[in-house]
Amino acid sequence: MTRIRICFVGDSITAGTGDTDYLGWPGRLCAHEARKGHDVTCYNLGVRAETSTMIAARWRAECTPRLPEGADGALVFSFGVNDMAIEEGKGQRVSREDSLSNARAVISEAKKWKPVLWLGPPPVVGDLQPLNVPGVATYYFDNARNADLSRAYASLAAELGVPYLEIFEPLSADGRWEKAQRGSDGIHAEGGGYALISDLIGSWDAWRAWFD
Questions:
Q1: Is the separation of the CB atoms in 103 and 95 below 8 Å?
Q2: CA 47 to chain CA mean position, Å
Q3: Distance between CA atoms of 203 and 119, rounded to whole angstroms?
Q4: Bridge partners of 5?
Q5: Which residue blocks in 69-114 are alpha helix, DSSP H?
Q6: What is the DSSP string of 45-78?
């Protein structure tokens, strides 16, 4: 049996926005391991609309009290979709260069502290753009930018020696993901979509190494 506390740090895809079961992929992932007899504490630290810049500013302060010294703790990061979004009237929220710089800073610091896994950004439904968040902003997401960032993140992860799971391509090829997004808003997904992400991670060798 593995006893572990895991902080899942990211944006609304991590938070599970659109999931009527309110589990997202972190909740499903940890529930699966708990059913197998592992003692897992799941901290979902996903925040809607957050960019890598925002995550870089908060992650350590939020994770430190949840992963105290003496306890077996780990970190899973997932971000980037919001970086590549164009906010109406303002432009791209975070440049590709700055996104990579933020990721390098976050992942480099995290890996010196705890075991780390890193998840790439997923695809969106292009013909459902833009996403209008009433009273907040209107965002234009783009798959070409997301795919490019995912590849750049993968290269950075390899350089840093951190396990990275590229989910853009497998989700793009799975019609169930687009169906789950269309049932939501084209960015977020219904529960079945988050289950697909959970399944991808759950069978990933780097994740399994924490439990098997």
A1: no
A2: 10
A3: 14
A4: 41, 73
A5: 96-113
A6: EE-TT--HHHHHHHHHHHHTTTS-TTS-EEEEEE
Q: How far apart are CA 167 and CA 122, in angstroms?
A: 6
Identify the CA nearest to 50 among candidates 78, 20, 18, 91: 78
Measure the CA–CA gap between 99 and 126, rounded to whole angstroms: 22
pLDDT for position 97: 98
φ, ψ (nearest 5 deg) of residue 84: -85, -5
Torsion of CA 121, 126, 195, 203, to 10 degrees: -50
Return phi, psi of residue 155, to 5°.
-65, -40
pLDDT tens digits along 75-120: 999 999 999 999 999 999 999 999 999 999 999 999 999 999 999 9
Count the neighbouring beta carbons within 10 Å of the beta carbon of residue 129. 18
Task: Give 74's Cβ-side CA count (13 Å radius).
Answer: 20
Q: pLDDT under 50 in the chain at which residues? A: none
Find residue 6's DSSP bridge partners: 42, 74
Per DSSP, which regions of the chain are E strands? 3-10, 39-46, 73-78, 86-87, 91-92, 116-119, 131-133, 137-140, 164-165
Supply 128's token pair: 């459902």
Tokens 């459902």 belong to 128
| Cβ 114 vs Cβ 67: under 8 Å | yes
Cα gap 12→191, rounded to integer Å? 13
